[in-house]
C-alpha cells in the first residue's frame, strides 16, 4: 500500500470515528433528557403549534436512523410510517430498549454501507430534499448525525419548557 493510500484510509477512519462519536453523544443526550422527564411529560406536547412530544421526537430519530442506514443504506426491508412517527406514544423503558437496539444496528449498518455502497437506493420513505440517486454513503452518515443533533436540541428545549414552572402551573 502506498503512503498516499494509507493516508487516505486513515482519513476515512478518522472521519468515520468522528461521525460515530458525534452520533454516540447525541444518543447519550437523548437518554439524559429522558432521565429528566416524568412519565406524564414524556408523551406531552407543548402548547405551541407543531410541537412534538419527547417520546415522538426520540421515536422519530430511531425510525429515521433505521430507514437511512438500514433500509436505504443496507437494502433491508424495514417498514416506516414517517407521518405517524410524530404521533407515537409509549414508555421510557420502550425507548431505552429501542435506543440500545438502534445503536447496535447502526454500528453494523454504517460500516457495511460505507464498505459496500448504498444497497437500497430505490427505497422511498423520506421527505429530505435530496436526490436519492446521487447521495453518497458518507452523505447518508452525515445526514443521520445532523438529524440526531438537530432533534437532540429540539428535545432539550422541549424538556426545559415542559419542566418550567409556567408549563407545570
Automatic annotation (TrEMBL):
The domain of life is: Bacteria
What InterPro entries does the database record attribute to this sequence?
DinB/YfiT-like (IPR034660), MST-like (IPR007061)
> What protein name does the entry list?
DinB-like domain-containing protein
Organism per entry: Gordonia aichiensis NBRC 108223
Task: Show the taxonomic lineage.
Answer: Bacteria, Bacillati, Actinomycetota, Actinomycetes, Mycobacteriales
Amino acid at each position: 500500500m502506498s503512503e498516499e493510500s494509507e493516508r487516505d484510509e486513515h482519513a476515512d477512519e478518522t472521519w468515520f470515528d468522528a461521525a460515530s462519536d458525534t452520533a454516540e453523544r447525541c444518543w447519550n443526550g437523548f437518554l439524559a433528557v429522558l432521565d429528566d422527564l416524568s412519565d406524564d411529560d414524556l408523551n406531552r406536547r407543548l402548547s405551541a403549534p407543531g410541537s412534538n412530544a419527547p417520546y415522538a421526537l426520540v421515536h422519530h430519530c430511531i425510525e429515521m436512523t433505521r430507514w437511512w442506514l438500514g433500509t436505504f443504506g443496507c437494502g433491508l426491508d424495514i417498514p416506516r410510517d414517517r407521518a405517524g412517527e410524530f404521533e407515537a406514544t409509549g414508555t421510557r423503558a420502550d425507548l431505552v430498549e429501542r435506543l440500545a437496539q438502534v445503536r447496535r444496528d447502526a454500528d453494523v449498518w454504517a460500516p457495511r454501507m460505507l464498505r459496500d455502497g448504498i444497497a437500497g437506493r430505490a427505497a422511498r420513505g423520506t421527505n429530505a430534499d435530496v436526490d436519492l440517486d446521487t447521495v453518497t454513503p458518507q452523505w447518508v452518515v452525515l445526514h443521520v448525525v445532523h438529524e440526531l443533533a438537530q432533534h437532540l436540541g429540539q428535545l432539550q428545549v422541549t424538556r426545559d419548557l415542559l419542566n418550567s414552572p409556567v408549563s407545570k402551573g
